[in-house]
Amino acid sequence: IATIPGEGIAPRLVLLGHLDTVPIGSGWNHPALDGVIVDEKIYGRGACDMKGGVAVAIGLLESLLNSGIKPSGDIVFVATVDEEAPDMAGAQALVRNNLIYPDDQVIALEPTGTRLRIAQMGLRWLDIEVTGRMAHAGRAHLGIDSAHIMSRIVDQLKALIQRLPHEDSILGKPRFTCGEFHAGVATNVVPPSANAKFDVRIVPPMKIEEVIPLVEKVASEVIKDFPGAKVQVKGHGAPRPPVRASDESLIVKSIKSSYRKVTGNEIEIGGSDGHEAYTDASMIAALTNSLSCTVFGPGSTDQAHTADEFVSIADLDKVSKVIWDLATNWGNTNRSN
């Protein structure tokens, strides 16, 4: 945690950047850890998600120190860990140890395509385990096919989530993904067990507490057609409710003002780039009931978690200029209307 002390009464401006990344994976055409620059793009794992945003924050702190400018409130950079993990333990630790204040104005410098995110979908990860009965594939009728049961559960859950009436003007409709599916012991054996992991993303007015009972109901209905089968549904990682910042918060007004001054244009709120993702700012908002947590940064989530991940130098330059104007004029209410 690094702080540039301010001299006024404005609340703290807190910039968040996580240092962890997802695994490198395969399929790269550029070295994954070299940070090579090709066609004004920096390539590498984490370049977009989110070393670009971290670089913006560090550059801001260095420039503020060299300039001698004293903003009207403290400017704080928090480098977190575990953002890519199920529990987002870094953000939770900040709140648990009272390192985030109730009136903090927060920006996660995550990739948003230089748009402003003021809302994030709720997220619940689930593990489902189906227990059937092993049998010789030639005598399959003597077994209970756990893979078939799990496939039915997946299909019915996907159909149910798509039918839900909930829709948000910014976030859109709920989403469902089966990210992992494991079953079987051999090709010629009826699989005795199956395990799958699910990603369920919701929008208001649906509550995060409704997800597990909804999934349990579907799974229980499916196994009625398979006497002797069992199913278990468990939550995986921290529950993440949907969150939204206030249009009237200081941080939202100030980002809009700085973006307008730097670019001559109005900032786009959301678009298709990134409201689906859950960030450290989202977790902080959920734990503190804050209406002042936003996301704005260089790069696009279209590149995040991919082979040949990159962030453009143009995005880094634009976001750096906006954040500089934001910080050096922080707390100036005449600019935030």
UniProtKB/TrEMBL annotation:
Transmembrane segments: none annotated. The keyword Metal-binding applies. Keywords: Hydrolase, Metal-binding, Zinc. Residues 118-222 form the Peptidase M20 dimerisation domain. Its cofactor is Zn(2+). GO terms for molecular function: hydrolase activity; metal ion binding. InterPro entries: Bact_exopeptidase_dim_dom, Peptidase_M20, Peptidase_M20_dimer, Peptidase_M20A. The keyword DNA damage does not apply. SUPFAM superfamilies: Bacterial exopeptidase dimerisation domain (SSF55031), Zn-dependent exopeptidases (SSF53187). Belongs to the peptidase M20A family. This is Peptidase M20 dimerisation domain-containing protein.
